[in-house]
Amino acid sequence: MLLRCEYHVDSDLRFLSNLDMMHLMERALRRAHIPYALSEGFNPHLKMSLGTVLPVGLWGQKEYFDLELRIPMDPEIFKNNLNEHLPPTMGLNRVAIIDSHSPALMKVINSAAYCFVIDAPADRLEELSQRLLKASELIVRSRGKKKDQNKDLRAGIFKIEVNQNQEFVIMELWVSTGEPVNVRYDELIELLEHNGIAPGSLKDVYRSGNYIYHDAAFNTPLEKVK
What we know:
24% of the residues lie in helices and 35% in strands. The chain is an alpha+beta fold. The protein has two domains: 2-107, Pseudouridine synthase I, catalytic domain, N-terminal subdomain (Alpha-Beta Plaits); 109-224, Alpha-Beta Plaits, CATH 3.30.70.
């Protein structure tokens, strides 16, 4: 039986590495007595695969993992049992049974939304978002494999929204995480700084979701398998 799980990680856990997250999940699964499957061989490991890795320093609202179970289990019972053994700043949002032959999360997730909490007037950020979307190119230094080479982010920025949130404004950017260009959150920070957003005015950064982008629509990995 294969489960696909959507979970959140609050800001208190933003400095956990991917390996730390795997260990945390495994300990919680053991404590919750979840009948998870193990691989064969001399060093059996959890049959669990995370979606796109949450960068260290960021927290996330809609992250995903797939988990194989030895025996069937009701998704709602699974969710409730595991949430009882996870830290209070982390938990499952939704769980669904998926086909065992479903493509891996890493293969289907091709987009993400990053939120930048900024101390700046909303109308200024609205103007900035329109200017970015109308630009023919948006050049920053690459932070990926081709480090410090020029990289054009424009083709990988699909949508931008600006929303007021109490004393600050949230600028949310939906971007590509694969083709046509892999857009990283730290490259977006550099882009904002190049366009007049002072580092001190950026109060927080988090990932609000991971998506399957197709035909101009953003679907979550849970919605797409239904």
